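Human: Cast an eye over this sequence-structure pair and say how the chain folds.
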Amino acid sequence: FLCKGLRVEAGAGALCVDLAALRAGRGDCGFRDWGLRSDQGLRKEMESSLDTGSEGVGAAEAQTAESATHAAQKEGELQPQPSGRGKRKAALTAQDAQLARALQSEWMRFSSRIKKEPSTSKGKHSPSAKSPAKQLAQQSNTVKRILKQEKSPQLLHFCSRNPEGFVDVDARRGCCICEDCAELLAEELRSGSGLAVLRGALSIEAVEDAKAKISRVQKDGSEIVRFGELGPAHRRVWSLLHLGKPFTDIVTLPAIFKIFGRVLGEDFALGSCSANDIGPGCPNGPAHVDYPYSMLKRFPEDTIACQAIFCLDNFTKRNGGTQAELHSQKSRSHPDRDDPLSTVVEAQPGDVIIYNSLLHHRSGRNRTDENRIGMLCQFLSKYVRPMEEQVETLPDEIKRNASKRLKQLLALDCPFPIKEPAITGGYHDMSQNDSLTKDFH
């Protein structure tokens, strides 16, 4: 529970915790604005919180009832009578007290470590001779130094700033991305570094299944396999959705919808779904921006495209991991193909790299003896033409069993573009709805 409900504020050296969130086991980890300056303050705040928790009755009513009960017991006029509500409150109080003791112990451990930190002040003045403001400033600096040594700077819940400069989201702890985290990541793509990594977002089973199917179609010489633009060591496998699961499940990952829905609009679409196979000896790719920005001379103000790389292999500096120039989406420009890119995004199988399509990036040179495969998915605002035709040749079984999210991504429930009544092909049959024809007469 310390991972989910404990936060140390470096600025004030204060311990912040939401006992109700801990007790309920919530993943959103909402924090109350509690600044506990010492173990005594911690004790008082926790004791007061036990009486004002969420026990199903109002705080004022609970406080009034409890004070009246204590007064009556003191005078010997009333003996406590066990009831359903009383038993529940006693159980919750005991649970909160257990949490309070554990948190107090954690706070004391952290406080003792602060006291052990050597003083950086010069001269023979004792700490007690310092002003309260200087003592607080020194304690704040000490806390910051401890946090810097122990972990990456924490932004929100499971989101932290990677030493490379982009945002990491630890999905391996079983957390789902809450609304606050989704908003933080959307802002990061729009006006921050332009890139984030969802660590462990895919299961190992999904990764192995996807990689096996891609390898199978490559060996079979399927028509969806093409040599890439970087030479014979570079291959692309297009139209992955035609292979069904797990690809239809991967593109509908809930975290993708929460984040990209805030950047591209809630009804965003899928522009392409392919695999990028960087083989041994494959050279650097050219620095570029992705479709549709790659075809534009002037860029719209709103973000109209984002990309997701679902890592099926390790992404490292040696095997051609994605290179990027963080914050370059703000320049709203095309890079030169040989521009140096300062950041290599390293990832493991199951990680998902998401970024603004206007970010300058490339694939790196593979200096190993093994292939590096990533699944590339392009997500667009609904009004942008997709790069890859995915509907007409999609098997009927996949269309029939498509989830609501997949229908949105492929616009399966959209009546446009209009075709002749005899050719439905997954589009709207005009003969079945006369109301639409009135708009064109």
Summary: DSSP finds 13 helices and 15 strands in the chain. Residues 82 and 90 are 10 Å apart (CA to CA). The longest helix spans residues 84-116.
